[in-house]
Give the backbone structure.
Amino acid sequence: MELKNLPYKLYLDESEMPSTWYNVRADMKNKPAPLIHPATLQPLKFEEMQPIFCDELIKQELDNDTRYIEIPEEILNFYKMYRPSPLTHAVFLEKALDTPAHIFYKFEGNNTSGSHKLNSAIAQAYYAKKQGLKGVTTETGAGQWGTALSMACAFFKLDCKVFMVKVSYEQKPFRREVMRTYGAEVTPSPSMNTNVGRKINAEHPGTTGSLGCAISEAVEVAVSSEGYRYVLGSVLNQVLLHQSIIGLETKKACEKFGIKPDIIVGCAGGGSNLGGLIAPFMGEKLRGEADYKFIAVEPASCPSFTRGKFAYDFCDTGKVCPMAKMYTLGHDFIPSPNHAGGLRYHGMSSVLSQLYHDGYMEARAVEQTKVFEAAEQFARTEGILPAPESSHAIRVAIDEALKCKETGEEKTIIIGLTGTGYFDMLAYEQFNNGTMTDYIPTDDDLAVGFAKIPNVAK
Amino acid sequence: MELKNLPYKLYLDESEMPSTWYNVRADMKNKPAPLIHPATLQPLKFEEMQPIFCDELIKQELDNDTRYIEIPEEILNFYKMYRPSPLTHAVFLEKALDTPAHIFYKFEGNNTSGSHKLNSAIAQAYYAKKQGLKGVTTETGAGQWGTALSMACAFFKLDCKVFMVKVSYEQKPFRREVMRTYGAEVTPSPSMNTNVGRKINAEHPGTTGSLGCAISEAVEVAVSSEGYRYVLGSVLNQVLLHQSIIGLETKKACEKFGIKPDIIVGCAGGGSNLGGLIAPFMGEKLRGEADYKFIAVEPASCPSFTRGKFAYDFCDTGKVCPMAKMYTLGHDFIPSPNHAGGLRYHGMSSVLSQLYHDGYMEARAVEQTKVFEAAEQFARTEGILPAPESSHAIRVAIDEALKCKETGEEKTIIIGLTGTGYFDMLAYEQFNNGTMTDYIPTDDDLAVGFAKIPNVAK
């Protein structure tokens, strides 16, 4: 591959931006299993989802057949404020590693939400606005999704109610203030504003909250308030659809600049980034037109793919959401508190779970001190201080590049660099001080979660 | 002006990036007054500066004649990691204001230091490395400059010692950790590691420090350590030279896309951003080739241009640095603690001071609550949460655009958007909570600073 005259940052022109999302489900022989109703164990019908989700988003959630879905003009216009995002040639990292491998990263952090989450937030806000809704509710943990949704809602003048896990609300006041600057109402969860919040506060006085509880509160407010719906930033099929913009741009840039990726690597929490990044490449692989090695990277402390079960499970701890078939550690699994950064979700996108189950992608679990070593090396050579989540992918990309150094192979590696770590400096501080530790759950630890997976035949 | 088919983000190709800096002093009839030695009151000679500054940077500091100075390849390569920066058409802000004005912003925040400071940091680190030095020392207040310098030093594997004003060190731990992640040694100032630090700690037990004190400590360590020099992120001629990359890119993008600016507006603390942004446009104005309205925006609480004196003054409170002729509030002037964000410097670049004195640019002082109102409006419409500093320029640009709405004039306004506010959320929190207040110093307040300006005939 001739890379000599390549610019560092491979930008598409605005006119080359994709105008459709790509729905990888259309090319999957084994479709992802449908969401089921926890009471009836039957696939959820459109009408059953309507109290919770926006109509158009339900259609996208259920649509396993339409390959390309047009991006509405209003969303495209918003995308143009921060997209196309650059595919950057990591020349300084390559030099530092002294590897024959070619490393590129698709950087989604150049927007105020600091991550790729904005790609789906703006779509979900748009459809809510189009349906004439007053507002949306959601939960946020570390705050990337809540920030993205706040920005999207400010743009469409939609009301935005965010339930933020209490410990993050208190420890990440800056994230909270970004959301408030965009006009969102941010409530620490569990709150005293909902039945489920009051119940949890009564049962666990002084609790600092959990994502599962925040989801339950957000859903309760959505279904009990006139003109509100609930929105979610990962896991769902619709989210992967919106995030396909990442992969479509990446693929187009590869074609424009003559890059042929061998390995595409991304971090996986709920799967929104990885699913979007690999989508069009996976499509080629599914159709037998090309082959790529896809690597999903997850924390060793929350190893859904590598140590989870492929089974139906609740999407939330509170069991108010539907059940999904996915790689899961059990909805009661809670990662060790020593784990920094995101990727703490017990389950995984059904689409990615099916693809992994069918052998179309690999997964690796990595320990966090090694992840932060990679993050530091990347920051010092490439200038960008990466999010802890993204740094999982950087870790494995560096490992693969070092393998190339041993074998002399000139592989081309693409990293999904989902975001920046500017609001994650507490974790970096631990690392800088040498007080960061690793934690790998024992089989007994995992058994606690697994025991809670309901036994659904399917 | 036909803007219909303009993309939102006006990018130069990498091949169109400027390969020289532009030295506006070459086109000034009245050159900026030289730095003088506080003891002899004579212009500082090269040899007198050598213990403090790198040789090549002293040459640039003293060079009032060379119009274009080549950017070394290593610096150009680093620039390519985050430059060219986009000149963005603020279509959504225009719509929100319902103005016939055309608004563009040159965005310098898309790098981990979060501001334009990196443009000069990498140049200064490069020349220090080239001179065979071990490292550099500097001070930082809010932390943008310290972060930028840390990144630059990590890239060239130079030692970096940052004295960070103690109150910021404690209140902005995240900034501190970004610097540490890049390998910098960050010391709260006043420290017990220097004579001047020990003296100040003894005289003012429990002091939370000041920029003036941090400068003194950084200079002491530089001159007393083998292989170290001191570097500074603003005010100096050399810094404005490096920052001319902002204006050169802006001008090239204007030419490429057919934009003719009427008004160019930037915030002014020490002048590094504004001086860089306007440089090549000012050159045209000085040579009589074109006319532009340049507006320097400063906080009403620290009004160097609008209420300062044009006189020789010390650059630092500790009087260890040379004296410069500039618009100054007196080196003992300390802005009210209620003032959020940067732009707290008592003086101003000698270059900009001379140009302002000679009538080539205007200045406006704005109050901070109005600044944050503009910041919020910009964040909600354009997606980027701006730094408080940059928001001063946004305030005035919005005011000018609203004037156009009244008069029907279709003026073209360019804003220097120096950076993001991600590490300034304490100030946003004050604004969001409605507890932010304004402060305009009385003439008596200012007299305290003015009284300390030494009476140097020149």
Remarks:
- Chain B has 18 helices and 15 strands.
- Residues 387 and 421 of chain B are 4 Å apart (CA to CA).
- The interface with chain A takes residues 7-9, 11, 13-15, 78, 80-82, 88, 92, 110-112, 114, 151, 154-155, 173-174, 177-178, 180-183, 376, 379-385, 420, 422-423, 425-426, 428-429, 431-432 of chain B (CB under 8 Å).
- Chain B has a mean pLDDT of 94.
